[in-house]
Amino acid sequence: MNKRIPILLGILLVFMAVWILITSNKSIGSLVERLDNIGYDIQLRTRVLTQNIKPTSPVAIIDIDEKSLKAEGHWPWPRNKIAELLTQLKNQGATITAFDIVFPEKENNIAETILNTLGKRNLLDASAILSLNQSKMLFDNDSILAKSLAENQSVLAIAFTPQPEADNILPKPILVLSPELQHQLAIIKGIGYVSSIPVLQDAAKLAGFINIFHDSDGIIRRAPLIIEYQGGIYPALSLQAVIAYLGETISLVTPQYNKTHQLEGIKLGNRIIPTDAEGQALIPFIGKSYTFPYFSATDVLHNKLPKDALLGKILFLGTSALGLGDLQPTSIQSPYPGVEIQATLVNGMLENNFSYVPAWTSGAKLIITLLLGLISAWLFPYFGPRLLGLIIIFLPLALLFINNWIWEATGLVLSLLIPVILLTLMAFLNIIYGYLFESRRRERLKKMFGQYVPAKHIDEMLKTSADYALQGEDRQMSVLFADIRDFTTISEGLTAAELVRLLNFYLNPMTEIIFKHHGTIDKYVGDMIMAFWGAPLKDKSHERHAIECALEMQGKLKDIKKMTDENNWPEIKIGIGLNSGIMSVGDMGSRYRRNYTVLGDTVNLASRVESLTKYYGVKIIVTESTQNNQPKFIFRKLDLVRVKGKLKGIAIYEVIGPQEMLTTELKNELEKYNQALNYYFKQKWDDAFTLISELEKAYPDKKIYPLYLNRINEFKITPPPADWDGVYVHASK
């Protein structure tokens, strides 16, 4: 295929992506912002929901929930009840109580209401009027709440408005900006405000605003920590609560660029809280709603909380009740209680775990897009459709993982959704182009062999000009049979669905191992796997590849055991038989069903020796034709056998492992065993029995030693015939 065209198309896509990132077009800019927000939301949810972080800071929420409304009455509650709640919080050890509630109007005094209503109608006598006037203070709930606020460290809420209105009073700002900074900094400005009535605000002294602004898509991702009003800097409710808790002061981090100051963060004691130029910080979500401790307000009022549950805590009084309207759409969950946003911000300040998006990230995103795009534009045309398909699936996951790692390590948030989209489009472009202009020839060959051999073999076949055909031929090859031991017992203890899942979990890695070692899967028959080496691609080292494959298959069972243990399934053990020799290979079957397979006595013998693994208590048995001239492996000669359907005896061997496993102990064991086997075949029963008894005592877990001891005892009682050639006859399959 001509690679020039897809490379040029890829480069064109790269420069289109770069133009999208740098253009001043407002519509395109809004689209990029929307994509960045989507990318951030995906990263945030992946990071938070996979880490299961629990807060360690002393933050909790006093919830005016449905339970409280049902027990105490509808909202708003009388302010004497709020005062009682505040007193209970103090008595139970609370350090700071922040109100996610504004009290902008005076509460009616019931004594004044009666005087005004009944007095106008002359329905009260002088004594009643005197009594009601004397009772006014008893029913002045604002004064009762003010007294409680003054006795507790409390923070009231402020709401800044975009209209020039001023309801009630503001406390003093925590900072005052110079005229120069007022002009240069882009901090969000309040035009008007709504605060609590003076008697309450004067008593509480502290206040913080509760304004949080949605992004253009209606989702809350950031929260302002400061707002400027008439040159003064006012803190958010969360920030004011932390300032009061720590006893720290704040300052603004405003480095100078080209003689202009720009806000980059807020310094709180030794902590730096990163913000954008407007004073907004990414909300440091650590979980979905109710991640922080919630305590029902009615339980606080009636002292039903566990002892010390509120001791030393920063408490936010707010609501999660549906009817009270403080549920917000956030990037982590929608709806999400607004009061928990405040708690989340405090937790982030105390644990110093804010993320940040510095101004230079737009340049970094541009460079990443350009570099990854140009590299992909050059490489993708040389990849096949399967690899490109894997790239489409796994590349976004890989970039997400890398991005999350950077985020976790540094707190830096990079949005890589645009590079991901670019690389995905380029992969699709190359898949379509390759299919239209090159894949037809490849697919014809794959159609012939794809159902018989692994994709790796087909790729190798495509690299050569050899003429591959499906007609039968005789070849020197190796064949493998692998069977699960006691499969009937295993299957009886599982449901049909569990059995299918177990087999799939077993067959998948075993197939991968066979493919890895250049094998071809012939068929699966229930729990049995049949594979061969040497066709359709010739393999001069088919014996070695088959043995290496068998060893790795046995080694893989350790990983499979972890899964079976997790599911309380029986452990899988397999026996493997290998044989090498001349066999017929080709496309065989009927017009209804065909299979690329191997046939012949060599194949049948491999099946027979596999069935002997259980008898000899070993994992892998190979015949002498497979074992011959394989110096890289350790073998133990098991026996001379004649299996059912065969007239001639053959030597069979256990494959112990690669030569690297040969320790001094193992070498001594095998030498003693081989000497004993030599005595056995020479019918020196006593000498053989002595050596094997020693081995059986040293290695009681090996079945081969008691097997020979029993056989020798039988021969001592009933000696073999004079023409005995040492062959043991196995009558069963």
Number of helices: 26
| Tertiary shape | elongated
What are the low-pLDDT stretches, counting only 5+ consecutive residues below 50? none
Global mean pLDDT: 88
Proportion of residues in extended strands: 15-25%
Number of strands: 29
Describe the main β-sheet briefly: 9 strands, mixed
Radius of gyration: 40 Å
Our measurement of the CA-to-CA distance between the termini, rounded to an integer number of angstroms, reads 53 Å
Q: Pairing-aware structural class of the strands and helices?
A: alpha/beta
| Helicity range | 40-55%
Structural features, described:
There is one protein chain. This protein has 733 residues and is an alpha/beta fold. 47% of the residues lie in helices and 19% in strands. It contains 26 helices and 29 strands. The strands form 7 sheets. Strands 21, 22, 23, 24, 25, 26, 27, 28 and 29 form a 9-stranded mixed sheet that branches. Strands 1, 2, 3, 4, 6, 7, 17 and 18 form an 8-stranded mixed sheet that branches. The radius of gyration is 40 Å and the shape is elongated. The mean pLDDT is 88.
